[in-house]
Amino acid sequence: MGILDNRSVIVTGAGGGLGAAHAKVLAAEGAGVVVNDINEAAAQVVVDAILAAGGKAIVNTSDITNYDDSANAVKQAIEAFGGLNAVVNNAGINRDRMFASMTEAEWDAIMAVHLKGHFCISSHAVHYWRDQSKAGEAVSGRIINTTSGAGLQGSVGQSNYAAAKAGIAALTLNQAAELGRYGVTANSIAPAARTGMTTAVDAMAERMKAPDDGSFDYWAPENVSSLIAWLASAESADVTGRVFESEGGKISICDGWRSTKGVDKGARWEPAEVGDAMKELLEKEVPAQAVWGTF
Fold first, then answer.
1. Total structural domains in the chain?
2. Annotated catalytic, 259?
3. DSSP state, 181?
4. Which of 30, 105, 227, 276 could form a disulfide with 5 if both were Cys (CB 3.0 to 4.6 A apart)?
5. Residue range(s) defining the domain that contains residue 211
6. CATH number at residue 91
7. Do residues 16 and 199 touch, judged by C-beta distance below 8 A?
């Protein structure tokens, strides 16, 4: 028995890395899992591992950047498992470049996979859940998005990735505000774990390698998957509109943009007066976290 018995989940980009870990943990908790990846062979390896462990899973190769094709992931979940309860938007790519050198293609690729990729399958899932709700059925829908520390505070050399991940965090807030009426929650996570993307740099690979002494594997992707599993469960019904950070054994809530008390003249500021107001504002502010790569 697990916290996801009788629930079904789509995980995008689940042929490896975090997505594969999420799929396996979700299945171990009783979920029927749609393992989505454009690499069919990689997705099949994950499905085979889940089936061998006694779980339930199927392969889906829908292109998450193609709206019409994405509908097939939702259709497969419903056909295979009798319904759909959660979408875990995990798929992502990197096209790192300093902003002054970035190409249009590098920008567009990131926006397509991350921002549009977070929209497509979720849109079809929401249509399914909304129809259920309007028909008077009880809905327990979950959207779980993947943002990043890069999107929350910026990251040198990743302006495209940071912008997309910041957009995902904002998208999550809107989804939560709009979809609660249908029984759907939306939350986002900023994971820190050992994956192909994070260990592409030798220094990161060394820092994140698994211990060989049997001690706690701080950077294991499964550490993040536990939070994903709980958010996908019925137990998380009262939690929505949050952005979480997950690293090792630590779970944090990201405290987003907030308006300060401000400086109010009660009338229009003359341009020459703004400097004094700015000085007062900056003296009172709590500084934001430093942009990754600047410390």
1. 1
2. no
3. G
4. 30
5. 8-253
6. 3.40.50.720
7. no
Q: Strand, coil or helix: what is 46?
A: helix
Q: Residue 284 catalytic?
A: no
Residue 219 domain-assigned (yes or no) = yes
Residue 161 among the catalytic residues: yes
* Candidates 62, 122, 140, 148; catalytic one: 148
Give dist(CA 14, CA 73) in Å, integer: 13
The pLDDT value given to residue 69: 98
pLDDT at 259: 87
Residues 186-223: tens digit of each pLDDT = 999 999 887 766 655 555 666 777 777 778 888 889 99
Is 294 inside a domain boundary?
Answer: no
State the distance between the two ends of the chain, measured CA to CA, in whole angstroms. 46
pTM metric for this prediction: 0.92
CB 58 within 8 A of CB 82: no
Residue 265 lies in a domain: no
Beta bridge partners of 32: 8, 56
- What average pLDDT is seen over the chain? 92
Distances, alpha carbon 155 to alpha carbons 67, 92, 273, in Å: 29, 16, 33
Whether residue 286 is contained in a domain is answered as: no
- Among candidate residues 62, 161, 188, 225, the one labeled active-site is 161
Angle CA(172)–CA(192)–CA(102) in degrees, nearest 5? 75
* Residue from 140, 165, 188, 233 carrying the catalytic annotation: 165
At 29-65, the pLDDT tens digits run 999 999 999 999 999 999 999 999 999 999 999 999 9
Q: Identify the bridge partners of residue 144 per DSSP, sorted by sequence position.
A: 88, 187
Compute the distance between CA of residue 139 and CA of residue 238 in angstroms, rounded to an integer: 13
- Could you tell me whether strands 250-253 and 86-88 are parallel, antiparallel, or unpaired per DSSP bridges? unpaired
